[in-house]
Amino acid sequence: MVVAADLGAPDAGERIDRAAGLPLVRGVRHLLQDLPPERLAAPALRKGLAEVARAGLVFDACVRWPQLDDLDRLLADSCDGITVLDHLGKPPVDEGLRSDAGQAWLTALRRLARHERLTVKLSGLPAEASDAGTLHRHGPDLLRAALDLFGPERCLLGGDWPVSTGIDGRTTTGAWFGLVRDVVGPYDWPQVAAGTARRVYGIRD
């Protein structure tokens, strides 16, 4: 489980300790998407991230692609814990990788890839696409770009259920997994499908 927590709260450390004591909890997520830059630069948030690392938990970062540089600065200024970037940073799926927006996403993602303890979750693209045709037209390029930057050992599969299901009534979790598998196959499907997540979240059989 990755649980929600307000990392800027005065009692964030206590909340994180309680979460870390639960047997199924492996990580914490404070929803960052759409927060203004000053909120992502707040000292309280950096302190909360340090508490997550101290507790041995993973931080799941959910931002939109224009916030990727803010996330880069936040991670550079925070304790060096393990971070998972959710949904590839919510790239501009409708515009595609070759657009100006797509290239800006790629440039920001390249900077983030320098954080060695950051992995990227291959998830969420159906929710960012206006229709299934756009997803299948532009999604593979975006997935391959992330795989090329991070490598399969720093990429993990995610479903984003239920948000990324039901796009124009046709896309299911199984269809999304199939799209990802087609792209990941030449890289290392077992690693992306399970190996990275097991290592990052400390999952044991």
What does this structure look like?
The structure is a single chain. By secondary structure, the protein is α/β, with parallel strands linked by helices. 46% of the residues lie in helices and 10% in strands. The chain has 9 helices and 6 strands; from the N terminus they run βαβααβαβαβααβαα. It has a 6-stranded parallel beta sheet. Strand 1, helix 1 (12-20) and strand 2 (27-29) form a beta-alpha-beta unit. The longest helix is centred in the last third of the chain and has 19 residues, at 132-150.
Report the strand count: 6
- Form type: globular
How many angstroms does the end-to-end distance come to? 15 Å
Q: Which stretches are poorly predicted, pLDDT < 50 over at least 5 residues?
A: none
Order of helices and strands: EHEHHEHEHEHHEHH
Structural class: alpha/beta
Q: What is the number of helical segments per DSSP (H or I, 4+ residues)?
A: 9
* Cα radius of gyration in angstroms: 16 Å
Biggest sheet, strands in spatial order? 1-2-3-4-5-6
